[in-house]
Design a protein that fits this description.
two-stranded antiparallel ribbon
Length: about 80
């Protein structure tokens, strides 16, 4: 994969990604996605959510909240 940090060699794997809802505020969701496992990644931990293949399978909204620590991410399955 060609990244802004250079070329990364790795393996593509199909995984189930579990999004956990806060207790009493919704339902957990599992979505399958293809991910790149790069053994030689030397930068700080990084997760990149690709739009095609993962985010396009979700409906989501971000509420920044009125006060600090009051942020909410809403999510559901896109049909």
């Amino acid at each position: 994969m060609d990244t802004r940090f250079g070329i990364l060699d790795g393996e593509l794997r199909r995984l189930k990604i579990h999004l956990l809802a806060d207790p009493g505020l919704g339902y957990d969701l599992t979505i399958e996605s293809t991910v790149l496992i790069a053994k030689d990644w030397v930068r700080p931990p990084l997760m990149v959510l690709g739009f095609h293949g993962f985010m396009d399978r979700l409906r989501f909204a971000i509420d920044p909240g009125i006060e600090p620590n009051n942020e909410i991410i809403y999510f559901g399955k896109a049909d």
